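Table S7 (text form). Paired inputs.
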Amino acid sequence: MIINKELPSDGEFVLIKISKIMPYGAYCSLTEYNIDAYLPISEISSGWIKNIHEFIKEGQQDVAKVIFVDKEKKSVDISLKKINPNEKKEKINEYRLEKRAEGLFNQAIIATKNSDKRTEIISKLSTNAQTYTEVINNSYSNKNSLSSLLGEPFSKILHEIVVKNTKPKVCKVSYIVDMKTTDTKSGISTLKNIFSDIESLGVKVLYLGAPKYRLVAEDSTYPNAEAKIKKAQKIFEKNSKKITFSIAAMKPE
């Protein structure tokens, strides 16, 4: 985060390190906050716990869910059992991306010789963004995204650093098309024309064995990739007097 919050929010997923285990719970430090949280024994596992040390260890790092926040007392309770593997994986990936984004931002600070102005720069950024990841994503797509806040030189150098160190995100969607031609005179020619029109949209057509074909579209976002498939579907519909078809989505890649 660009500006660290004093306390996490109720329901937030947090990175923790178990620091002290007690008979009925454990105290944990929160990696992203300068505060400790309490993990009740009833929130460690859904099953009955006879020996708490069989479930958690001091020094263990994990992801937990915030289940209670007392802003006045600055106390936080967390749960391990109220988070599933997918949520845990997503939180860890989010944290890694944020630390990497912060590293790229710091490179720009050093490259522009603004180390002594870092606090001032962060303060300005906080008016438009909450995370370094957000800043880096905006800089990647638009080299002038920070010009109005921090000036063109900084915005340009950050963009160059981000582009050099970041692989463009590729979102791929695939659809299976079952298609047959009703054009008895020039069926093959009809199919070739349809496939040519579809490929001009940036959609790959892969032959799987008559009458099945696979359509593959790629873009920087899933909605954009899906939009290409929708345009391809319109081409099928346009030729509905010459073909019969059905189309079904595969799992996003």
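Next pair, protein 2 of 2.
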Amino acid sequence: MQLISLKIKNQNGSVFIRTVVILFMILMAGLGGLLFYGSRSIHDLFENNKKLKVAIANLTREDQIGYAKVIRQETIDGELYTTLKFVETARDNKLKKVLEREYTIQGDVVFFDALIVTFKTEDVMSGKKRALYLWRRIYGENMAPSDGYHIEMESRAPNRYADFLAQLSMPEQEMFWEAVWRLADDPDVLRKHGIKAVYGNAVYKKLRPGLIYVFKISANGRVYPETIPDI
């Protein structure tokens, strides 16, 4: 009886192990298919989606992309602090605000960090250079960039490009922005899909009350502040 019982247990154990192995293989096969489908989805979106290509081609040259002004400067416990308002403007209307935030930074030297994504010329129907400019964060000279305050949240569609991918489905839009933001950490991921260059552009300025710092972008993608008096 003991031998029979042991044999049954072994058989049950073998059946259980075989069942686990089969389930594991099915799971891995499904996961592999999911990953393959995900990578193909990104690939198809950039290579075969005509609506995305048209959206990129319709990007217009951008001049002003936002501005900042000092609300107040005060000394607290012997340290100078600058409170500033940062405004992001619409692509088609410099007077329209699409984002407005306030930040308090230690000191008066402030860095403004943007992510710039440029596409290959041949992928733009008009032949003109186009680019996406994504504001990332603001930080002071006494802060590490990684501790900076967010302007736009990563993986989300920036407000200034709300109409950019209007012809794409919501899953396709989410896929596109998630992929673009990921370029900040891994610039080589989507170069094969028509991305010419991805780089950060951090500019800094010593801020003073009574002035407005208008951020513009040059033809070659350089972000720079233009200082004008506050009216």
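The first helix runs from residue 2 to 47.
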